[in-house]
Write a structure and sequence with these properties.
The protein is an alpha/beta fold. The protein contains eight helices and six strands, in the order ααβαβααββαβαβα. Helix 2 (about 40-50) packs across helix 3 (about 65-75) and helix 6 (about 165-175) packs across helix 7.
Length: about 240
């Protein structure tokens, strides 16, 4: 007499909830690739196809927005190893001295980082941005304290780079580790630190790295203004005044 045995219950193997899963849960839907100008699309492709991108251009051309949008797209993509967006800005006031700010280091940096938060709020929403920040997927670093760091598996965004010194730019660029991208941008005609733009770390980087593989350099100088058309007229008047 053969004894009947109960069939073994099938065991379901559940995959661990990854960092990428969490990111795509917080950011509800992928953003469409909507470009307002050819310059924006060209810049986006340079961002995605190089390890470092250095860009200069006037206000209103979309260089900050495209950099942040590319960073979010890469962060959401499950087929790469980018797990974090790091935001860095030089702590230089635009001629208006704020004095000694209260709070810890991150709170002191918040006024300088606010424009980047504003862009993220537009792209993914304030709630998603705050959740990612709480999970340390979006982080803010002080340039002054980056010596000795090695940035891996991250997308670093460095804006207002025209206010950096050549030594600060060197410090930043040599922090790049494995599986990381650095997006660097600024406006050489709008520096709050130097009377002569050639003293800027951004100018130095554009001059030095114009022909190195994996470093893309982009000039927005002739790009169309995509914000209020009045910005273009204002910049034109300032440009004319500088030449006279």
């Amino acid at each position: 007499m053969t004894r009947k045995t109960k069939p073994k219950e099938e065991q379901t193997v559940t995959q661990p909830f990854s960092r990428k899963d969490f990111i795509n849960t917080v950011i509800k839907k992928k953003q469409r690739n909507k470009f307002l100008t050819e310059h924006q699309e060209e810049n986006y492709n340079i961002l995605k196809n190089n390890k470092i991108k250095v860009a200069s251009g006037p206000a209103g051309v979309g260089k900050s927005y495209i950099a942040m949008k590319a960073a979010v797209d890469l962060l959401m993509d499950p087929d790469n190893s980018y797990e974090k967006i790091i935001i860095v800005r030089p702590a230089v006031e635009a001629e208006e001295k704020l004095g000694s700010l209260p709070g810890n280091l991150e709170e002191k940096l918040d006024p300088y980082i606010f424009p980047s938060y504003y862009l993220l709020n537009k792209i993914i929403g304030k709630e998603a941005r705050e959740k990612l920040k709480e999970a340390e997927i979006i982080e803010v670093f002080a340039l002054a304290y980056m010596r000795g760091m090695n940035i891996d598996n991250s997308i670093l965004i460095f804006e207002e780079a025209q206010n950096s010194t050549p030594n600060q730019m060197k410090l930043l660029l040599t922090r790049i580790g494995f599986n990381s991208k650095f997006f660097i941008s600024g406006d050489l005609e709008q520096t709050d630190r130097y009377k002569d733009k050639i003293q800027s770390g951004l100018y130095d980087a554009i001059k030095l790295f114009n022909d190195i593989p994996d470093i893309g350099v982009y000039d927005f100088r002739d790009a169309k203004n995509v914000r209020n058309p009045l910005i273009g007229k204002i910049l034109q008047k300032y440009d004319e005044e500088t030449r006279n």
